[in-house]
Amino acid sequence: MTALIIVVGILAVVGAVGVVLSTQPLYSALSLVFSIGMLAILYLILNAQLLFAVQLIVYAGAVMVLFVFIIALLNPKAEDRPILDVRAVVAFVAVITITAALFATAHNGITYSGSNFRGAVVGASHNDQDPAYTKHAFDFKPADVNSGQAGNVQTVGGQLFTVFLLPFEITSLLLLVAAIGAVYLTRRVPKTEVDT
Amino acid sequence: MILSADPFLLAPDAFPPLLGLSALLFSIGVAGVLVRRNPLVVFMSIELMLNAVNLAFISFGRFLNSEEGQIFAFMVIVVAAAEVVVGLALITQIFRIGRRLDVDDLNEMKL
User: Fold this and answer.
1) What is the CATH number of the domain that holds B60?
2) In a 10 Å sphere around its CB, with 0-12 CB exposed, 13-18 middle and 19+ buried, how is residue B93 labelled?
3) How many domains are there within chain B?
4) Cβ of B32 and A155 within 8 Å?
5) DSSP bridge partners of B90
6) H helices within A75-141, ranges in order?
7) Looking at residue B66, what is its pLDDT?
8) pLDDT greater than 70 at residue A84
9) Could you tell me if residue B21 is inside a domain?
């Protein structure tokens, strides 16, 4: 299963690189759809069936169709200036730095022992005699990983409508505001308003 | 097998690669925001970053055997959808008043 995760992950990274490097916006959108689809497969592997469906319906279905609509409507040209210049070097350095920092944190920054996380600064002196400290992060027992039913619609929906009811209701307000804002922003601006 | 009721076996050593993948996707999204000038592609890069964070949320939720990671990812998806709607409305309006779609040209917040 780890091999499958790695293969799907590599495909997701290929799609993500395609988003950044494609000159045509439409190709970027299609690469993003591919990357999102690969992430949906990962969600399924991670036992998140509801999120798998939501990812495909909301992201690949609604959001990306909206993107493609806008691209077709505006018909933006490919960027005339070269992509690789000074800011590409800055971006490359930023990518390397962020990835290395996140890798280091994921690998030895956090240790899992018993029932709680113990955060530790990378490079800080670990007490290796401490039996709770483990060399590799997230040294789970398989029984912990494979015992639960977390992820099906029943459990997620149950949590969503009990413990997280208030955030869920606030979400509806957010969507209402976003819809009204979109209608307001796309209204036709009178010529005089632009000129002044 | 995947859709069966029994959760299939997932080795704990699958967790670091997932976090690494999340970090890599997030970094690629950052690179897209820094490099690209088309606001549409910048938005797509932001979507990429949000998806990377979602992957981290769901991985943590899976390996801690809790639904809360998935609920957070759910909320992130909702916020991303709202953000895309407002952002694309802004881009449409910028195009309508005849400005070039270039984030370097749009460095002041007036028409």
Assistant:
1) 1.10.287.3510
2) middle
3) 1
4) no
5) none
6) 86-104
7) 79
8) no
9) yes
